[in-house]
């Protein structure tokens, strides 16, 4: 059996990569990918602890997180398409001109 510390280290590394991508990029597609990395890091934790404790609660929550990620991608792609149609670019700094 693999110790849960390995899963936690992997999850923390993936989450840190997602945070780094979220804070340093200006492209809306990379924002979306970074949020997906952070959600997958949370899924790794949920499934690892579910396996460690021997129940399926974490795996059930993992499925809910996957459904949330799919909905987030659908809304995010719609926003990105609107940005591209209006500005011919997916730079999030241009979106400040869409305010009232």
Automatic annotation (TrEMBL):
Report any one BP term from Gene Ontology.
Answer: ATP synthesis coupled electron transport
Q: Does the keyword Acetylation apply?
A: no
An example molecular function term from Gene Ontology annotations: oxidoreductase activity, acting on NAD(P)H
InterPro entries noted in UniProt: NADH_UbQ_OxRdtase_chain4L/K, NUOK/Mnh_C1-like
Q: Where are the transmembrane segments?
A: 6-23, 30-54, 60-84
Membrane topology per the record? Multi-pass membrane protein
GO cellular-component term (any): NADH dehydrogenase complex
Q: Where in the cell is it found?
A: Membrane
Family indicated by similarity: Belongs to the complex I subunit 4L family.
Protein name, UniProt field? NADH dehydrogenase-like complex subunit K
Species of origin reads Haloferax mucosum ATCC BAA-1512
């Amino acid at each position: 059996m693999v110790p849960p510390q390995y899963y936690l280290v992997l999850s923390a590394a993936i989450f840190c990569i997602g945070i780094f991508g979220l804070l340093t990029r200006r492209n809306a597609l990379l924002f979306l990918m970074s949020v997906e990395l952070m959600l997958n890091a949370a899924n790794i934790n949920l499934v690892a602890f579910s396996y460690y404790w021997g129940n399926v609660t974490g795996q059930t929550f993992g499925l809910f997180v996957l459904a949330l990620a799919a909905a987030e991608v659908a809304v995010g792609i719609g926003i990105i398409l609107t940005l591209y149609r209006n500005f011919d670019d997916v730079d999030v700094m241009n979106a400040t001109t869409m305010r009232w």
